[in-house]
Specification:
Layout lengths: L1 H42 L3 H18 L7 H19 L5 H19 L10 H18 L3 H24 L2 H16 L7 H23 L5 H40 L1
Helix pairs in contact: 1-2, 1-4, 1-9, 2-3, 3-4, 3-6, 4-6, 5-6, 5-8, 6-7, 7-8
């Protein structure tokens, strides 16, 4: 009997971290839903309701999550994008596009933190890569034209929307590489660079952009999660098997005196 109690207790201890993680995941799912509702309100131009949802997010976030749950970088990105989104829907000086951009940034960050694979920001891949291809084509055809400048502005705006999210999902080395590309395009947009120099930079940037999206769309299971599942499952199976063997042995021993009496 004592062994069974200890076995159940041991299994509970093993599963306790997973139960805690499940509770944390459930709380974050509610916050994720709030960010999605806030974005929907902005799309419908219901800014006061969007403001209330963002304020509720802040209150619930402080209530449910303590220091140590997130890294310093994640906390910084959450805080910055949330403040920007709240300011955007509150200030009357912001137009619809500005509000939509800031709240979308925040929405994508919240999703990026909870999504292991294929976060929402990766859905902008086709749009971003298409704009980049059009921009590159303008350079190939007529160099530093007004059309190129226009497409560059569109590209920079689109990439700015996902930039906070990639800070959450990607290593700093990859972020620095992309920031370097962006800085080059923006800083030398009006410089009389050779077409070959600009194209060479853009071709490398195109490869790095594809790598950025490909890295997040790989649908692979987390090796650490698989190990936890295997370990926990093995312990449970072994424990139950041992309990069953002890029960079988005990039942067998109970029958032995009865046979001796009959003989």
């Amino acid at each position: 009997m004592k062994f069974r109690i200890l076995s159940v207790l041991f299994i509970f201890i093993l599963l306790l971290p997973n139960l805690t993680n499940a509770e944390s995941t459930d709380n974050w799912a509610k916050l994720d839903e709030l960010s999605g509702q806030a974005l929907l309100m902005v799309k419908q131009e219901r800014y006061e309701e969007a403001k209330q949802l963002l304020q509720q997010f802040s209150n619930d976030f402080l209530l449910n999550f303590r220091n140590g749950t997130f890294s310093m970088d994640e906390l910084r990105v959450i805080t910055v994008t949330h403040n920007s989104a709240l300011e955007a829907v509150t200030s009357t000086s912001n137009n619809y596009d500005e509000r939509l951009t800031k709240v979308t940034q925040f929405r994508l960050v919240v999703d990026a933190i909870s999504s292991e694979h294929q976060p929402l920001w990766t859905e902008m891949e086709d749009s971003i890569m298409t704009t980049f291809s059009v921009m590159k084509q303008h350079v190939l055809e007529d160099g530093n034209s007004q059309s190129y400048q226009h497409q560059l502005n569109i590209f920079l705006k689109k990439f700015d929307i996902i930039h906070p999210s990639i800070q959450v999902d990607l290593p700093s080395s990859q972020i620095q590489k992309m920031d370097s590309h962006i800085h080059f395009l923006d800083s030398y947009r009006n410089e009389g660079l050779k077409k070959s120099t600009r194209i060479q930079q853009m071709e490398q940037m195109e490869l790095d952009l594809k790598e950025l999206f490909d890295k997040m769309t790989e649908d692979e299971a987390d090796p650490s999660l698989i190990w936890v599942m295997i370990s926990t499952g093995s312990v449970i199976i072994l424990t139950l098997s041992y309990v069953g063997w002890r029960k079988y042995k005990g039942d067998k021993q109970k029958k032995l005196p009865k046979r001796d009496t009959e003989e």
